[in-house]
Amino acid sequence: MLELKGIFKWYHSGNNRTFLLKNIDLSVKVGEFISVMGPSGSGKSTLLNVIGMLDTFDQGEYHFLNESVHKLKEKQRSILYKQYIGFVFQAYHLLDELTVYENIETPLIYQDIKSSERQAMVADMLDRFRIVGKKDLFPAQLSGGQQQLVGVARALIANPKLLLADEPTGNLNSKQGEEIMELFKELNNDGVTIIQVTHSEKNAAYGSRIINLLDGSIEH
């Protein structure tokens, strides 16, 4: 499904080059469930953002579904991302001025899905996450856990081929966290490829393989 070859990402501070990612080689097959672990600052979120096309890199190649991402213009990357990738962010990234319903609906609008169909899909998600009663509220009126559930619902609504999750259960109580992980497992069984960043050994164990990052490099 995707392949990273010799990916480097750095920034300059004075005359020094500080590496965020160093020589990352990673191949992910369709249907895999990968857990990325490592201490804070090891480059986990940066790697996820590069895979999710939200972040560029300085050197290397990235192939996604037979497209050479490193050769695409930003607009083309954005189209690929919206079509195939769902992203669950650690900091929710909900749009404050939109209601829960509108936040969840947003990805479908990018995909030109008819209004009646959108309504049915959003209703299904509200139901699945038991947040029907919250649909007209704004993010600021929700608890952290509820915002996270809305974020997950939004990431899943357009049936992404690849789901990227950055500490998906970080703000949930243990029961909610377990429910989200079980849901990910179901999705994975249905063929969705998942890459999650997690600090939790328990959550990492849901994956079919674990990748450990340290100082921007994959540990072998």
Structure overview:
The protein is built from seven helices and ten strands. By secondary structure, the chain is α/β, with parallel strands linked by helices. It has a single domain, classed as Rossmann fold (3-Layer(aba) Sandwich), CATH 3.40.50.300. Strands 6-7-8-3-9-10 form a six-stranded mixed sheet, with helices on both faces. The protein has a four-stranded antiparallel sheet with strand order 2-1-4-5, covered by helices on one side. A hairpin with a 2-residue loop joins strand 1 (about 1-15) and strand 2 (about 15-30). The longest helix is centred in the last third of the chain and has 16 residues, at about 175-190. The chain starts with a strand and ends with a strand. The mean pLDDT is about 95.
What would you say about this model in short?
With about 220 residues, this protein is α/β, with parallel strands linked by helices.
CATH-defined superfamily: P-loop containing nucleotide triphosphate hydrolases
The total count of strands amounts to: 10
Helix/strand class: alpha/beta
- Can you name the CATH architecture? 3-Layer(aba) Sandwich
Question: Please, how many helices?
Answer: 7
Q: Can you tell me the CATH topology?
A: Rossmann fold
> Which CATH C-level class is it?
Alpha Beta
Low-confidence stretches: none
Kindly report how far apart the N and C termini lie. Answer: 22 Å
What is the helical fraction, as a range of percent?
Answer: 25-40%
Number of domains: 1
- Residues in β-strands, percent: 25-35%
Report the C-alpha radius of gyration, rounded: 17 Å
Strands of the biggest beta sheet: in what spatial order? 6-7-8-3-9-10
The helix/strand order is EEEHEEHEHHHEHEHEE
Largest sheet: 6 strands, mixed
Query: What general outline do the C-alpha atoms trace?
Result: globular
Overall pLDDT: 93
